[in-house]
Input
Amino acid sequence: MYADDLAYIHDAGFSHHARGTADGVVGLLRANGVDGGLVVELGCGGGITAAHLTASGYDTLGVDQSAGLLRLARQRAPRARFTRGSFFDFTVPPCAAVLSMGECLGYRAGKRGGTGAMMRVIRRVHRALPRDGLFIFDLVTPKVAEAATYARSGPDWALNSQNTRDRTGAWLRREITTFRRHGHGYRRGSAPPHVQLYDAANLSRRLRDLGFAVRVRKSLGDYDLAPGRVLFIARKR
Output
């Protein structure tokens, strides 16, 4: 879970993906006939996509388990509704579309995560959608090529990540250390998120077996996803 400092740093330094895909998400909804209604966002983060959705006329419900990110989301998208909790436990209400951007579905939350947990989420999404409803999400594939060490900093923060794969190659472990200015010094924090790596072809077959028509892309509108990431556009048949 993103504690306050990591939530702040994520929003300040790593929101380019949400900003890059937000317009494309709205365009994709429009292009597929979803012109209004409720859009549910699983792992809504700091509310960047939610703000675009409400500005475009959609009712929006965001779900995230980080209190820090939800505070930012409520400020950024005051017309959206938000609830705190894990999407592994969340019952998706009837809606026109469901989103999960930023590889959220691949994260492990405590002991929960992995293919089985994600497929249970996807089944709940399928039940909540009407015919031709959309499920749009992105994930990391085994083709990802993250550097072993990654660092970035801003005026009042810094982040370092040590990245390794487990022996099976199915999980990417990021040992994240954060530093955020606090008074005259910096406060240090840490987080060990695990991200499962999914084969796009295998997951597409699973989605089709559940009753989705599936397209896989490496870009959304004018925004190219980072290498090793793929976008799934699943329409309920």
